[in-house]
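Pinned message: reference record for Phosphopantetheine adenylyltransferase
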Amino acid sequence: MTERIALFPGSFDPFTKGHLDTVERASRLFDRVIIAVMTNAAKKPLFDGPTKVALIETVIADLDNVSVVAQPKTLTANFAQAVGARYLIRGIRNANDFEYERDIAALNQTQDAQLETVLLLAKQEFSFISSSMVKEIAAFGGQVDQLVPPAVAVALQEKLKHGRD
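Predicted structure (tokens):
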């Protein structure tokens, strides 16, 4: 049987507990899951690519069938082909996410008709978490421990403490 490889692309700036839950669930559905840390030209990143990769590696260390890579500046569909992934994993928090992901899935199909997008609904306890809101809360000194894994919380605190001095 062919190995079922899934790609979970995102900017992950920062990687949240919602992202982690999606990865954990995907790891039970697929033989291998590759987290692709992407550069989103529309966003101003807080963490650089290597830092995000290192943080995510720390967080997923106990997931044997999950790896993380920095995605080169290329289309996600092309990168999926390059790593042998036939599935894209996307987490859905609400109707707005669904609309957006449906359109992206259709566009990805124009690039690779064999690439399937698998949507995982966010669990209730993670449905309100967004990376941009986490960054804003952290930037103003708020508590993010319930929103991000411990290693990410520490990194956020370290990164943003200079702005509050």
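Pinned by admin. Summary line: The first strand starts at residue 5 and ends at 10.
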